């Protein structure tokens, strides 16, 4: 059963609001009508304050918890254990207190007569829409075990890719952070001691030293203004990202980034292809799958392209034509395999081949990404260290030259 928030008119014409539990929105509408209310608006309720507070207190639910849960449920169902008993067993074994509470509510919903997909859909922050839809396809197709095993494999691969990206970017991020910390230490602690000494001399300061001295003065005397500017810049950037046209432009630029653009494209294509193939294999219609699959890709430009693809197919064109005409970021290999899969009735198998190929490419790229970035990192470190060294050593060298000339 799901929770629905509603606005309705009673027999006296007053507007009343509240929440109701029902199987779906139609059932909620019928229930309100039976209660002599005229529905105005019915929408699925968001997470309650109680659940949100519980989640904050006991921490977030990790992807590893969901993967383990999915595999365990599939294994128990395969062994013939009823779904309610399976959830009860996993609830007792759960170590994450937040996830344990979720399983308690899922078990309660199952006992009340809801299906597994309906019970999981009550927790959209834990079980994503694509997760629930694949469970729905498994329930309707009669092969829930296969659908759950496919889900677990998909989530494991997604976790592997995220872990590989984090590992590849860890080194350059640490180097940049170390360089920034070195600059802060130089400006805050080292440079002030030299500034007094430099101020007493008549020797003109070189440009790097003047830049650091100016930065030091700004931080010391105007740090509240700088803090306000940084916060204002962050808020302005956040507001810009909320603008649809600007977000589309930024997301489109991600595919054209130097060095990282091709990698990003491969990851997006692989993520979409993996979930799209799984949905089609489990009996979800192509148009419905094109509504669900984009949710796994956090890119507004890509989602907009898929909307165009779906509209093209709805207009009577083939799936291959939709992707060929409306998806310019897809390489010809992908659209060719989609066309072959559509003609032979093996679209999911062709998409699997695309995903396998790009997975191999992503693995190779992730392993060599650090090597590819190293020249850029070395250049950044070299420029940073040279700037700091010149800022400190050049004025000392100039003053020693002056003192030497005076001694002569």
Layout of SSEs?
Layout: E1 2-9, E2 15-22, H1 25-34, E3 38-44, H2 49-58, H3 63-78, H4 83-93, H5 97-111, H6 116-121, H7 129-141, H8 144-200, H9 207-242, H10 244-254, H11 261-281, H12 286-292, H13 300-314, H14 319-326, H15 332-344, H16 347-407
Antiparallel strand pairs: 1-2, 1-3
Helix pairs in contact: 3-4, 3-8, 4-5, 7-8, 8-9, 8-11, 8-16, 9-16, 10-13, 11-16, 13-14, 14-15, 15-16
Nutshell version of this structure?
By secondary structure, the protein is mostly helical. It has helices spanning 25-34, 49-58, 63-78, 83-93, 97-111, 116-121, 129-141, 144-200, 207-242, 244-254, 261-281, 286-292, 300-314, 319-326, 332-344, 347-407, and strands spanning 2-9, 15-22, 38-44.
Describe this structure in words.
The chain is mainly alpha-helical. The protein has three domains: 2-46, Ubiquitin-like (UB roll) (Roll); 56-127, Up-down Bundle (Receptor-associated Protein), CATH 1.20.81; 170-408, Type II secretion system (T2SS), domain F (Receptor-associated Protein, Up-down Bundle), CATH 1.20.81.30. It is 76% helix and 6% strand. The chain has helices at 25-34, 49-58, 63-78, 83-93, 97-111, 116-121, 129-141, 144-200, 207-242, 244-254, 261-281, 286-292, 300-314, 319-326, 332-344, 347-407, and strands at residues 2-9, 15-22, 38-44. Strands 2-1-3 form a three-stranded antiparallel beta sheet. Strand 1 and strand 2 (15-22) form a beta hairpin. The N and C termini lie far apart (94 Å). The model is unreliable at 53-58 (pLDDT under 50).
